[in-house]
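Title: Request for sanity check on Thioesterase prediction

Description:
We are preparing a figure and want to confirm that the structure record we downloaded matches what your pipeline produces today. Could someone re-run it with the sequence below and paste the raw structure tokens into this thread? We only need the token string, no images.
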Amino acid sequence: MMNIVKKYQIKITPEISFMDEEVRIEIVGNPEESLQLQLITTDYYNINGDLRIMDEGSQWENVIEIKLDSDGLKTLDASVFTTMHIVNGNKSKLEQDLARVKENRKCHIAFKLSKGNTIVAQNLHERVFCDDTIVSENIISDRLLARYFTGSNYDKRPAVIVVSGSDGRIEKAQAIAQCLAMKGFSTLALCYFGMKHVPDNLDRIPMEYLENAIVWLSKRQEVDADRIGIYGRSKGGEMVLLGATLFPQIKYVVANTPSSYIHEGIIGGSRTSGHSSWSFKEKEMHFIKVSKGSLFRLVIGMIKKNPRAFRELYKFVTWKNTNANFPNARIKIEKCNASFLLIASNTDSIWPSDMYIEEAYQIMKDNKKEKNCKKLIYAGAGHMLTLPYQPIPNCEEYGGSIEKGIPATTDSWRETVQFFKQMQYDK
């Protein structure tokens, strides 16, 4: 058994932290000493990468070479969590029953400080999405599949509906919903495909799921029905922009790396469906169809390993498409009275979210509604702009860099929380 040298210390403040919270990590040792700090966890749930890599059995790690200063100190921050990566991923079959999906409220990260081959200090830190002051409830039916989070005191409060991206499931949405619940909101993480009770594929998804979520929230005694917001990222960003035009009860909308156009549905995880992504009152919403020619361009781009192949595909079909359906595929947010926060990066490699929100903002401005719309475009951050201090294992694949992604996710989340807090004062 290795001996722990007690003169070394790993001080973490606060001792227990929230997932979106900054921390101060202080390493104490001898002046000018070189050490190695290892972070490791096996119970972290991956909200940014491969959805199949679940919390159990996947090992995340970060190894940092440290040089102490002349006082024998080195201070680190929460970016050490962002740069963690998977060293042993356990790919699981996705659970289809919402009742069996874990809430993943917290994880434990072991800090080990080493000198050579000897561990000289250790600490175990807990990171929390939401604590025990938040109660939860499952809503399981063919009309609404969701998980609800709210404070246990049941004071009247604004509510936020949260939807994920092209996975459609509950896990990533609930992580965001949990963090927002800790900020004083009642939150509803909504599943719209990929599980029991909802479609298998991202194809003609009924917008009634969102309508039913609004109705359900409005009946809760602790929810202020006049203050309902919605958050969606990626494909969910497209959904929430569309939802704002259909349901006037939605007052505040955060669309994170969205499309402002309705695109074709996806089946089998990668094939276009030939139909719209969304439907309402049993009718398909107008959409931009992906032509065979544009798909051929995509395949060529992928063969050439062009990291911007998908971005170029969506640019082409959106602004150079001659489909007769095209003019009606744009989501006309200028027609509704909601307030919007639009978030994107200029290096988004999934689709040109920055161009989508630039155009949407300009149209709002042309309609004298720019006061109801704020856009944030971050340089070099890529497609993952969700919660701060979360590992982004495929950051470069999504068009960004860790260096740019860390401040961008921190700032965009701060802006998101401040934006939703305006609901408390909206009369």
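Thanks, this matches our download. The helical segments are 79-82, 171-181, 208-218, 235-246, 292-303, 309-319, 353-366, 402-421.
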